[in-house]
Amino acid sequence: MGDAPSDESFFGRFLTKLLSVLRWGQSPECIFCKIAAGNDPSAEIHYHDSNYVVITDIAPASKHHYLVIPKEHIRDMKCLDDMHIEMVNDMLRIGKQVLESRGGKWEHCRNGFHNPPFISVSHLHMHIISPESEMSTRMDLTFRPDSYWFKTTETLLGILDRMKPPVSQVQSPIDELGDLR
Ligand SMILES: [Zn+2]
Ligand SMILES: [Zn+2]
């Protein structure tokens, strides 16, 4: 009986953690979840709303380097499907807005996502880097467009778009009418 309270507290802590992930989609150990929840005072936050937060990358690859992070804990781009197209477009719009509001040029911007298993933090984030011309050789390689390890937002949107069910699989009311005739 003496062991019961500690077992209970261990189990309680485990349940609390599990519930917080299930209910809020946040992982207590995840640095980006911590930032999204406003629990990391060191993060330089440029934008936040109920769904997204934008911070400066901890090791900027150029003059402007921001991370657009959804508050929901999504591991990486491999977890996305056609239902996330709107989310990725939101992230792109917000990233462009932050870059331009801070004097960066969108036409000189490189943006995209790490392709697993080559991920830095296991919480989905879009890199917004500008200007591309000021990137070092090493950074240029780290964020090489459409390499095995980094995919541009445009490429990701193309991948997600191809996940949409083919139109022919969706039965239209006209097809049903045809069956009745
Ligand atoms: Zn997270
Ligand atoms: Zn990253």
From TrEMBL:
This is Adenosine 5'-monophosphoramidase HINT3. It comes from Galendromus occidentalis (western predatory mite). Residues 31-143 form the HIT domain. GO terms for molecular function: hydrolase activity; nucleotide binding. It catalyses: adenosine 5'-phosphoramidate + H2O = NH4(+) + AMP. The lineage of its organism: Eukaryota, Metazoa, Ecdysozoa, Arthropoda, Chelicerata. A motif (Histidine triad motif) lies at residues 123-127. The gene is LOC100907600. Keywords: Hydrolase, Nucleotide-binding. Belongs to the HINT family. PROSITE patterns: HIT_2 (PS51084).
